[in-house]
Amino acid sequence: MALRSRRIDITEQSRPVLARHAKLKFDKARQVWVILVPERVLAPDEIAVEILQLCDGVRTVDQIIDGLAAKYTADRGEIGTDVIAMLKDLADKGFLAEAQDRKS
Question: Which end of the chain is more exposed for a tag (fewer CB within 10 A), N or C?
């Protein structure tokens, strides 16, 4: 799999992954998950952390939404709207890239 370096447009078919320069880590001192990027730290909420942990470059946004809707027995439409909005915001800030199969 290769990663696109440009910003991505998040759709249900996207397969997002944290950008190369971004790391999701648990900060033991603060007892909170953070996204580390050069010269910046973002502390996502608990739900955002769960979504980001599912952004493995293999699952599509559609699959992430389905999994969360089933896990929380919640309306898929509402979950989808929230997940896509959050991922678009992170993509616009350069925290996400999109995984792509290599074309040989």
Answer: C
Q: Which of 98, 75, 100, 102 is nearest to 11 (CA)?
A: 98
Delineate the domains of the chain, giving CATH numbers in brackets.
Answer: 2-100 (1.10.10.1150)
Residue 70 CB neighbour total at 10 angstroms: 11
Look up residue 23 and give its amino acid.
K
| pTM greater than 0.85 (yes/no) | no
79 touches 65 (CB < 8 A): yes
Q: How many residues does the chain have?
A: 104
- Residues in the chain predicted with pLDDT less than 50, given as ranges, are 1-5, 102-104
Instruction: Measure the CA–CA gap between 83 and 53, rounded to whole angstroms.
Output: 13
What local confidence, expressed as pLDDT, does residue 1 receive?
A: 42
